Amino acid sequence: MRPLPSRSCPRWCLITMPRAQKTNGPCRRTEKLSGGSCKFRPRILIDVSKIDMTTTVLGFKISMPIMIAPTAMQKMAHPDGEYATARAASAAGTIMTLSSWATSSVEEVASTGPGIRFFQLYVYKDRNVVAQLVRRAERAGFKAIALTVDTPRLGRREADIKNRFVLPPFLTLKNFEGLDLGKMDQANESGLASYVAGQIDRTLSWKDVKWLQTITTMPILVKGVLTAEDTRLAIQSGAAGIIVSNHGARQLDYVPATISALEEVVKAAQGRVPVFLDGGVRRGTDVFKALALGASGIFIGRPVVFSLAAEGEAGVRKVLQMLRDEFELTMALSGCTSLKEITRNHIVTEADRGRLSPRL
């Protein structure tokens, strides 16, 4: 994917994408799946002439365990923005998650045609705004809520501060356009940070997960879990699933990479709800690692934005196909013909270094 940002990008993209790849802060922030964190233990002499990558997420069948994470303001990357991403996800037979802070509304994305779509939700101080947004998403045919829980305050995004980031004047947060919440004001530092400080509810707690269940029939995925303790609390609060995420390593420094936190969360869930990984996936091999550690599927964010900026809908389709092809090849070379055959015995992690024999 590395050549993509250098081709067909508008000038602002060529300036912005390299900065985005530096993740807005010092190298202590951790997002990508480390190449040294997992090693494969492939099995041989297995018939891999047919590979089945299909899976079911919350009752919905998809073509592969690779889904699209919520990323905000996609029309900053390409004029078609979320429209292009939605069409690409539908063509690939997978799930798109629309950000609350999208530059296309839930109704507009639904108008692109059929597809399985989730809606990512930030909880605003005005709960009437939240209830209205959830009901609009449900009416538009969205199938689940991904509740972001790791942003009571915005992390220190130093590139945003340096650049005094604000949404361009020709764009709005479309889901809030009629509520006088669709624009960001200029600020001395980051306009986004000022927006979050003014609108997002810092009192958000587990009781609000239960409250959401009273206003919608959509299942709720809790996004931003990194510990066993919070996994258990999420399940107790009625979450239908867990998304292991460190918000692209842009919230709190020194948190683990998602792949490092995944197994702890999976063990705490004990199979009661599915666990997904969001963040750090750049290769099909990364997808295999996550599933071997117990994930039910993964979400990708930056690869979608970069490919969208480079080639629009065609770019997003291309990156989904690349990951699919790489994942299929990894399955074949590891001796797995279906997702259920991918097990913990197929990898060795740094934590396993002292263990000489595999789990049996």
Written account of the structure:
This protein has about 350 residues and is of the alpha/beta class. Helices cover about 35% and strands about 15% of the residues. The chain contains eleven helices and twelve strands. The protein has helices at about 10-20, 80-90, 105-110, 125-140, 160-165, 190-200, 205-215, 230-235, 260-270, 285-290, 300-335; strands spanning about 40, 55, 60, 65-70, 95-100, 115-120, 145-150, 220-225, 240-245, 275-280, 295-300, 345-350. Strand 10 (about 275-280), helix 10 and strand 11 form a beta-alpha-beta unit. The longest helix is centred in the last third of the chain and has 33 residues, at about 300-335. About 45% of the residues are buried. The model is unreliable at about 15-30 (pLDDT under 50).
Keywords:
alpha/beta; two-stranded antiparallel sheet; 11 helices; 12 strands; about 35% helix
Proportion of strand residues: 5-15%
Number of DSSP E strands: 12
Query: How far is the N terminus from the C terminus?
Result: 37 Å
What is the C-alpha radius of gyration, as a whole number of Å? 20 Å
Main sheet properties = 8 strands, parallel
Average of pLDDT: 87
Helix content: 25-40%
- As laid out across the biggest beta sheet, the strand order is 4-11-10-9-8-7-6-5
